[in-house]
Backbone:
């Protein structure tokens, strides 16, 4: 009986996790624009305090969803973004650096890419131009 209770407790703890979830590229849909998430350089997630995960195909869709739901902002626990320079994983979106400029070709045309390291954002800025923004500054872009 103790093993059953222990197993159930572990299951409940894992099922209430508030971490990121891998984006299933080519299958998952964006919770803002409803398009299929395709490009590993741009997928993002917002995780609520209750563990609900919203997935997006671009930083601009995540930004638009975030701004549209600003009244519920206190329930947003984590924001994860794909690193444009190192696609495939997700990093902390609130600590990321965002390159915004006309030569940054993002899925929804918002000209926005996230980087986990400032040096990577600066390297791409040299190639593509644009402006490097913090998370809070990125929220104000259009």
Residues:
């Amino acid at each position: 009986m103790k093993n059953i209770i222990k197993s159930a407790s572990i299951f409940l703890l894992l099922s209430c996790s508030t971490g990121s979830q891998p984006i299933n590229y080519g299958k998952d849909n964006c919770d803002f624009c409803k398009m299929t998430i395709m490009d590993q350089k741009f997928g993002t997630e917002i995780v609520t305090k209750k563990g609900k995960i919203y997935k997006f195909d671009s930083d601009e869709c995540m930004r638009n969803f975030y701004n549209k739901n600003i009244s519920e902002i206190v329930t947003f626990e984590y924001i994860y973004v794909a690193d444009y320079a190192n696609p495939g994983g997700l990093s902390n979106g609130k600590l990321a650096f965002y390159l915004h400029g006309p030569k940054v070709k993002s899925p929804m045309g918002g000209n926005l890419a996230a980087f986990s390291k400032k040096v990577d954002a600066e390297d791409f800025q040299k190639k593509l131009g644009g402006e490097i923004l913090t998370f809070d500054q990125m929220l104000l872009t259009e």
Helices lie at 2-15, 59-68, 118-128, 135-138. Strands lie at 44-48, 53-56, 76-82, 90-92, 97-100, 112-115, 131-133. Residues 1-16 have pLDDT under 50 and may be disordered. The longest strand covers residues 76-82.
